[in-house]
Write a structure and sequence with these properties.
Layout: H1 4-22, H2 24-45, H3 52-64, E1 69-74, H4 80-88, H5 92-98, E2 100-101, E3 106-111, E4 119-124, H6 135-141, E5 147-153, H7 160-172, E6 178-183, H8 201-205, H9 217-229, E7 236-239, E8 241-242, E9 253-254, H10 256-266, H11 269-283, H12 288-308, H13 316-335, H14 341-365, H15 371-399, H16 406-427, H17 429-434
Parallel strand pairs: 1-4, 1-5, 5-6, 6-7
Antiparallel strand pairs: 2-3, 3-4, 8-9
Helix pairs in contact: 1-2, 1-14, 2-13, 2-14, 10-11, 11-12, 12-13, 12-15, 13-15, 14-15, 14-16, 15-16
Length: 435
């Protein structure tokens, strides 16, 4: 590791320069950095008692952060976990342990973390039990869910309880989209390959459209039966077969991209962008650690952007340290690298000063109505994303047996800050136009 004294000395010189240049603004920035590292230290030492006002502020920000909510309705073993795995890239074990009970018969899974969720799944488990009453779930979920996804196993025709529940859920919010996902298609054609190219494209736009004759007869009859059983209760039908690579099918995610396309079409614009960004970011990454860390970074970036839009100067300087500290802690867990006090000092020396001047500028600009919020959101999101990627860069190097120099880490941070800033502006054109 590099010399702590030399790193901290350089950091101190730059901080003194920033303070002299900006007067009280420098002191405010230094206080902001102090809050960040104090928050990090609480995380490292296991202090589970963060300021109550911070928790209250974070709860308010989470409520305003666009995260798609999918209500999964279907019997046990109907393919719901496979659907979640496909949309998130998470492993079955992580999905299973991530769900937590929220009503007597349902549970909730926030991906990648409940602190900063990008996607939320509501799973109704009791729907295949006799006498299931969806009233409690409707009261709990009706205002939260953006899309209902009904999963029906292709060869399972006992869907009476599911239909009964769907009738009441549909009646509660008739305008909310419902997707009928007919799953496990391979069970209709044992030991035979899937029909290619994917022949069910028209069912997404026209649920009652005829199924092509090229589809094997038994598969076609099974899909037709499910369309008949749920007639009038769904807006799109997507037959699919989400299997694991070791199952030996040529296309493990058969129909998966079609399902994702339907979800994107049905989601409101703000929520649609979240799903798009998640796919693009994770597809571009090859390393296992980075693929797991990227959703964490994106979740906290979205949360930070929302906090940065608060139109009160310096208000988010209380919230952002908590957001970024929790992100750093989660990333450290992914890499199996504990955030020791020594490591925190190294990261502070290398990255901390790089964020200082940007924070001061962002807070000053917030004095300008409308423009300030747009700029604040952009800088908060970009700095959080760049910090997350810089932490990955640092931990990746540590895992390989060396530590990047402060200059290399700072350069990496600024490169990703600039790229994230451009991407955030592209994703939020209305806010950028106002600015």
């Amino acid at each position: 590791m590099w010399s702590r004294d030399s790193g901290e000395g350089k950091m101190g010189q730059e901080r003194d320069h920033a303070t002299r240049a900006s007067g009280s603004g420098g002191r405010t920035g230094a206080n902001r950095m102090s809050r960040f590292w104090n928050a990090m230290k609480r995380t490292v030492t296991g202090d589970a008692s963060p300021p109550p006002d911070l928790e209250q502020a974070l709860d308010a920000v989470r409520g305003k952060t666009p995260a798609p909510v999918f209500w999964l309705l279907g019997k046990t073993q109907s393919g719901k976990t496979s659907l979640v795995r496909f949309l998130t890239g998470a492993e079955d074990a992580a999905i299973g342990s991530g769900f937590r009970p929220c009503t007597k018969t349902s549970r909730l899974y926030q991906f990648p973390t409940s602190d900063a969720p990008l996607l939320t799944f509501l799973d109704t488990r009791g729907v295949d039990e006799p006498g299931y009453d969806p009233a409690e779930d409707i009261a709990q979920f009706d205002r939260q869910a953006h899309v209902v996804v009904v999963t029906a196993k292709a060869t399972d025709f006992g869907q009476g309880n599911v239909r009964h529940a769907l009738e009441r859920i549909r009646a509660a919010s008739p305008s909310r989209p419902v997707i009928l996902a007919v799953t496990c298609l391979h069970e209709t054609i044992p030991r035979k390959p899937h029909p290619t190219p994917y022949p069910f494209e028209t069912l997404a736009a026209h649920p009652g459209a005829p199924i092509p004759e090229t589809v094997p007869q038994h598969m076609r009859e099974c899909i037709e039966e499910h369309r008949r059983a749920f007639a009038g209760l769904f807006d799109a039908c997507v037959p699919l077969d989400l299997t694991k690579p070791e199952d030996g099918f040529a296309e493990p995610n058969y129909g998966g991209e079609q399902l994702k396309g339907v979800l994107l079409k049905m989601l409101p614009a703000a929520y649609r962008q979240t799903l798009l960004r998640l796919k693009e970011a994770t597809d571009a990454l090859k390393g296992v650690h980075q693929r797991h860390a990227e959703p964490i970074i994106l979740g906290y970036t979205s949360l930070a952007g929302t906090a940065g839009a608060v139109p009160i100067p310096f208000a988010d300087m209380v919230i952002l340290p908590g957001i970024q500290a929790r992100m750093a802690h989660h990333i450290g867990q992914i890499y199996g690298q504990p955030l020791t006090p020594e490591r925190l000092r190294e990261l502070a020396a290398a990255i901390g000063v790089g964020m200082l001047s940007r924070q001061l500028i962002r807070q000053a600009v917030k004095l300008i109505p409308v423009v300030g919020s747009a700029v604040g959101a952009t800088v908060a999101a970009a700095s959080t994303y760049a910090l997350g990627r810089a932490l990955c860069f640092y931990f990746e190097a540590v895992c390989e047996g060396h530590v990047p120099t402060p200059d290399a880490l700072r350069k990496f941070y600024h490169e990703h800050y600039d790229a994230a800033e451009k991407q955030w502006k592209a994703d939020h054109p209305k806010a950028e136009a106002k600015a």
